[in-house]
Amino acid sequence: MENTITTPAQPTELCNYCSTKIENDDSFCTNCGYPIKGTDFEQRSFVAARNNIDIDMNEFNKTLKSATMSLYYLAGIFVISGLISFFMNKDNADVLAIVLPNFILAILFLVLGSFSRKKTLACLVSGLSLYIIVQVLNAIADPVSIGRGIIMKIIIIGYLINGIKSAINIEKIKKENNIA
Amino acid sequence: MPEELSIIGDQEIPDTKNCLYCDKQIALNTKFCKNCGASQLPYNAKPLNNSWHLLKQAALFYSIYIVVCCLSSFVDAFKTLGWCLIIEVIIAGTAVLFFTYNWNHNKEILIWSNFSLLKLATYGAIAIISSCLVHYSVDWLNVTVFSTDQHFYSIFDGNKAAPYLIIFFTAVTPAIFEELGFRGYLLQILLKVADKDQAVYISAFLFAIIHLSFLSLFWLIPFALFIGYMRVRENTIWYGVFFHFLFNLTACLFQLL
């Protein structure tokens, strides 16, 4: 009876779950915590728990992707509004001063978008703050501008806030389960 | 210590530690104990449950800054000496209030335990040199960094104490309260929520964009990153306060002299 519990059912060279090399006397994988010498039930429970974590992580990653995409989307919006204001003010002597902020914002959002894969939380918080500052400044310059495209603005802010929440949750799950 | 452990253990592991739960000897880089399966994450590396709450608190802090800075910079009605004082009090009060609200976590960075005159002089020299570089590079770009501050200076026209007021409002108060707010309160919160690099990046970017000047971003971001890393390395805000003060004072003197 003792044998049925302690004898490993599979060769012990590689972990069944994460394929890390394991020593003969190890009871648990040192990389993922898989119960190498555990009972069938324990091993299955481990895999099921890990699968649940993966499902959660996938959900959060999807939200994160929408949030990072909205950074690129914002870059696009500022390029378009820059071009529109250029053609509207072509003959104005200050055309550069009117158009340049749009292009600088587009570049900033593009840079934030491109770094968002590595430094997700930093880029999303920065992007959201920048977008809100731009909206506040627009509202001071022209109070009517608050209403323009308000649904789109709310959607973008919503995506960014959800992205920040997801980034925090992913970090939390990774730490809780000691996943790199 | 490795020698001591290698005597106890008969495995050929170069460096070992004890499991946090079953206390058995395991390899140093182990993530899970090979004997009991327990995660070897140190207690202080465990995730916080209130990250989102902390971020919301930081967002409230930053929102106050956004509203106050946007209004004071772009609404002409606020460009008087009286309003200037009120705005300064609101900004300083916000920084102090949020800083003291989390007093237990923040008080450690008010301590200046590693005071070194040499370090202070080095940071001071870097501040003065970088301020000169910024001044001339901006001149070269033919755009004045202090385009908004020049309006700001006109507030003091005809005032006998103008130079002192200008130094007070552009060098003394920002150095103390911006550092207390951004490198003090905000960075402390971000360090709890994110890793060191991301926390410093976020605080630097937020600090840079609150100055509401596109052309200043190119030097404000490196400036804030430098002070951010300085604050994390030295674990005190005072080197940053000194750096910020000298940087702004140099810029101020270029305008006054």
TrEMBL record, chain A:
Species for this entry: Mucilaginibacter pineti
Keyword flag Ribonucleoprotein: no
InterPro entries (alphabetical): Zinc_ribbon_dom
Pfam families: Zn_Ribbon_1 (PF13240)
Protein name, as recorded: Zinc-ribbon domain-containing protein
Keyword Glycoprotein: no
Keywords from the UniProt entry: Membrane, Transmembrane, Transmembrane helix
Chain segments annotated as transmembrane: 71-89, 95-113, 120-140, 146-164
Domain Zinc-ribbon: 15-36
TrEMBL record, chain B:
TM ranges: 54-74, 80-99, 120-141, 161-178, 199-230, 236-256
Highest taxon above the source species: Bacteria
A molecular function (GO) term: endopeptidase activity
Domain (CAAX prenyl protease 2/Lysostaphin resistance protein A-like) ranges: 163-249
Keywords assigned by UniProt, alphabetized: Hydrolase, Membrane, Protease, Transmembrane, Transmembrane helix
Coiled coil regions in record: none
Protein's UniProt keywords contain Protease: yes
Record-linked InterPro entries: Rce1/LyrA-like_dom
Hydrolase among keywords: yes
GO BP terms: CAAX-box protein maturation; proteolysis
Identification of the protein by name: Membrane protease YdiL, CAAX protease family
Species of provenance: Mucilaginibacter pineti
